[in-house]
Structures are given as C-alpha cells and as structure tokens.
TrEMBL record:
The keyword Repeat applies. This is Ion-translocating oxidoreductase complex subunit B. [4Fe-4S] cluster 3 binds at C124, C144, C147, C150. Keywords: 4Fe-4S, Cell inner membrane, Cell membrane, Electron transport, Iron, Iron-sulfur, Membrane, Metal-binding, Repeat, Translocase, Transport. Part of a membrane-bound complex that couples electron transfer with translocation of ions across the membrane. The lineage of its organism: Bacteria, Pseudomonadati, Pseudomonadota, Gammaproteobacteria, Pseudomonadales. The keyword Ribonucleoprotein does not apply. [4Fe-4S] cluster 2 binds at C114, C117, C120, C154.
Amino acid sequence: MSLVLAAVIALTAICLLAGAILGYAAVRFRVEGDPIVEQINALLPQTQCGQCGYPGCKPYAEAIANGDKINKCPPGGQATVQALAGLLDVDAEPLDAAGGEKPRMVAFIREAECIGCTKCIQACPVDAIVGAARQMHTVIVDECTGCDLCVEPCPVDCIDMLEIGSNVQNWKWDRPLAPGQLIATDREQAA
C-alpha cells in the first residue's frame, strides 16, 4: 500500500511541477489568441502594407505586445500612436515615418490602360482588386486599404493612388479605418 501511495505522491508532484513550468511559459511568452495582441491589432489600420517593418498588422501587434515601439505605422498616423499609448498606458511618441503621416488613399486602375496581367491582384493583401487574365481590372473601393502594394508590380503603370478627400460621409474620421470602412467616392471627385 505504501508503494502505491508513494507513486501517487510522486505523480502528483510531477504534475504540479509541469503545471508550474507551463504556467510560467504562458506568462513569459505571448501565445496565439493573446487578448492584448488582439486589442492592439484592432487599433491598427489593417492595411497589411509592411511599412512598419513587419509583414502585416497582426505581426506588428505581436511585436508591440513584446515591447517594440508603437510609432511605426504611417497609414495609422499619430491617431493610432495615441490610441496604442492609451491602451498600453505608455507615453505617445511622434510618428516614426520618413514621409510623415499619410492621408487616406485608395487605388484607382485606369481601366483603358490595364492589360490584365493580374500582378496587382497577386500583390493586394486584402483582395480588393478584381479582374481576370487579359481582362481589365478594377478596385473595390470599400475593400481597398490604400497600402500602395499594387502600384509597383504594374508593368504598364496604370494604377494611381488617390487621396480620399473629406466629404459629408467621412468628415468625422479621427482614427484609422478598419477594413471595409472606406466610403466609395466619385472618381471625378477623387481625381
């Protein structure tokens, strides 16, 4: 009987030790589904443009949660820096961007010049461009995040980035847009 009792005590001790080690690891290292990462990611503009040095907004959110600076997002601008500083209870720093804060932009394909190569479709991180091979392409304005990644691969240079001007529908925007929040504008007004 004492051998069984000793085995149970040893097994319990091993389980407690393993639980303590795993508990420490969960606190020490951020894991998938971390609430703070999700909150940070929700504040980022979801352009997936890579201008912060990370391949998208979620990896940048993970980096911020692990101590990286909060001021590396040009599309988000100073408003995003302020929002992140408030969330994380840190001082807001000036935006760290060579070109400074950028206005809200949307891609526009001059359809008459489009040769249908599909290179812009492949480059778009949010699937905001539709078209088929050897057919003209167009941008779904409500989906476009203005990341500018479609411009460089275009072999005929038929993509322009147009600033979304203030209008009756968007004049109150005071922080970066989430995906799907862009409001379609008349092409004449945007040009």
